[in-house]
């Protein structure tokens, strides 16, 4: 049995959980707070970041969400999430990188630091200016998602892919932290509502992070 080291609001771990859920891969969650820099965890991943997947029986350790996703794409048949032509697969990977890099550094990362890490680790209030900038950036990113949904069935093309799972993982964390204003984003809202209703997504919506409470609508499929 695989073990997945993560914490509830890690967007990169959520991406992997959605992928494993869609592919029907079993795993056990192991709670890890990477900011604590536990020696045992740093021994697994010197970078000290989640997610990390471990199969103790085989002595196998997988590190980095994209490397983990590619591993299961190559080793689990069916429900391909990096699919289609070479051009399609390139577009999927482009959008995965866009959410993991741009959206994370402008939206998810600042929200996690201000609303979660500051409270749990530093016992400090959030910076209102930083929160406003993150929410402004989120709105701009959702404008682009609206555009994609206007022109495609799913973010990267005709079928659901890792791009959709990655986007939903980051947006779900930002939404939990109160960083998403859904006003004027009906296209993205409809796409996200469909993903929230999938069995792979429901366990994520039921989880809570200590001290940090999500908006009341957070779990609702129709919000």
UniProtKB/TrEMBL annotation:
<dbReference type="InterPro" id="IPR036249">
    <property type="entry name" value="Thioredoxin-like_sf"/>
</dbReference>
<dbReference type="InterPro" id="IPR010987">
    <property type="entry name" value="Glutathione-S-Trfase_C-like"/>
</dbReference>
<dbReference type="Pfam" id="PF13417">
    <property type="entry name" value="GST_N_3"/>
</dbReference>
<feature type="domain" description="GST C-terminal">
    <location>
        <begin position="85"/>
        <end position="215"/>
    </location>
</feature>
<dbReference type="InterPro" id="IPR040079">
    <property type="entry name" value="Glutathione_S-Trfase"/>
</dbReference>
<dbReference type="InterPro" id="IPR004045">
    <property type="entry name" value="Glutathione_S-Trfase_N"/>
</dbReference>
<protein>
    <submittedName>
        <fullName>Glutathione S-transferase family protein</fullName>
    </submittedName>
</protein>
<dbReference type="InterPro" id="IPR036282">
    <property type="entry name" value="Glutathione-S-Trfase_C_sf"/>
</dbReference>
<feature type="domain" description="GST N-terminal">
    <location>
        <begin position="1"/>
        <end position="80"/>
    </location>
</feature>
């Amino acid at each position: 049995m695989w073990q997945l080291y993560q914490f509830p609001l890690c967007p990169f771990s959520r991406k992997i959980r959605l992928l494993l859920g869609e592919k029907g891969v079993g795993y056990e969650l192991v709670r890890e707070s990477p900011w604590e820099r536990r020696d045992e965890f740093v021994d697994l991943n010197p970078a000290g970041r989640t997610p990390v997947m471990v199969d103790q029986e085989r002595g196998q350790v997988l590190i980095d969400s994209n490397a983990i996703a590619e591993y299961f794409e190559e080793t689990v048949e069916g429900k391909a999430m990096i699919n289609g032509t070479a051009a399609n697969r390139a577009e999927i990977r482009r959008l995965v990188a866009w959410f993991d890099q741009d959206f994370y550094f402008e939206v998810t990362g600042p929200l996690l630091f201000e609303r979660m890490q500051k409270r749990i680790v530093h016992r400090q209030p959030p910076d209102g200016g930083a929160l406003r900038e993150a929410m402004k950036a989120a709105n701009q990113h959702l404008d682009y998602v609206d555009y994609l949904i206007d022109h495609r069935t799913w973010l990267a093309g005709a079928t659901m892919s890792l791009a959709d799972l990655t986007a939903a993982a980051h947006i779900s964390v930002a939404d939990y932290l109160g960083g998403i204003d859904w006003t004027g984003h009906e296209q993205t809202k409809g796409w996200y509502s469909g993903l929230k209703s999938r069995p792979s997504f429901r366990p994520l919506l039921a989880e809570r992070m200590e001290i940090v409470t999500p908006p009341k609508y957070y779990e609702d499929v129709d919000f």
